Amino acid sequence: MYSSAPPPPTGYPAMNQGVPPSNYGAQYGAQGPPQQNYHGGPVQYQGQQQQQPQQQVHSVSQFVQNTQSTSGKVPFEVDKSRVGILQVNFGCPATAGGVLQQVYMKKGSMVAYQGDIKFEREGLLEHGVGHMLKKAVTSEGATLVRATMGSKGSSGRAHLYLADNSKVVTVLQLQGESLTVNGDDLLAFEPSLKHQIVMLKKVSAIISGGLFNVKLSGYGCVAILSHGKPITLLVKKGQPSVFTDPQATVAWSGSLNPDFNTDIQFKTLLGRGSGDSFQMKFDPSKGEGFVVVQPCEEIGPQRS
């Protein structure tokens, strides 16, 4: 027969007692648990507050106040809290002088407008036969739409709102410079800017469906698109060449003349004939400037 276990020392908690004494573990520098019975749930320690999820609830008046459009005092505006929407303000002073009455915009980018505005595609013969041929090859004729403020109404003002799949909108003001923009990343520009289609060398063998770019020059505002916030890479003499993925390249200085570089190792490893196996090469010996790159590739060929 086994003898019963000796009784615990004096001061030790009895069996089945829910809470140890307050000085339990004090000799080791530990703080005893709160004096409360355990019922199976989490123990709430002193000073610990249970966090409740915070919900942002707005009144109707607050919502309207916080989501109104911007001031409308410049041709192109993008609110910091709504970086995916471009506001075009007809009737305000244009960048190159006069009053803004017309803009070129990407087809399908209109999300709203206020006032009398007419929309029409750019005529194929407007810029000559050579321009028409390039449009036929690149489908650019179905990409640009001309928006013109009408004569109805006495205010002489109208507002146009443009967006494209929640992409970030960046507005640049050209002051005699030139900028080449990927055709799919061009949202809108003032008519005071001269524009022409630029085809890249060897592009037909690189990306199915073709890749076109629009070169803008002169004085005026242009709005470009990017997936997320873009970064800018400088192309400078004395520095190595800059290589970019064609489908991640948004725009570059008009002074740059990129070439295409083929990386056989990339093609072999990835097993595909486009994308990372081809890069745009910006050689500083052929010109200095900058390249704008987005943190995401355009999916598939560009479409009108």
From TrEMBL:
UniProt-annotated stretches for the region Disordered: 1-61
Biased composition (Pro residues): 1-11
Amino acid composition bias (Low complexity), ranges on this chain: 24-61
Transmembrane segments: none
UniProt cross-references to Pfam families, sorted A to Z: AIM24
InterPro entries linked: AIM24 (IPR002838), AIM24_sf (IPR036983), Trp_RNA-bd_attenuator-like_dom (IPR016031)
Protein name (database record): Altered inheritance of mitochondria protein 24, mitochondrial
Protein's organism: Marchantia polymorpha subsp. ruderalis
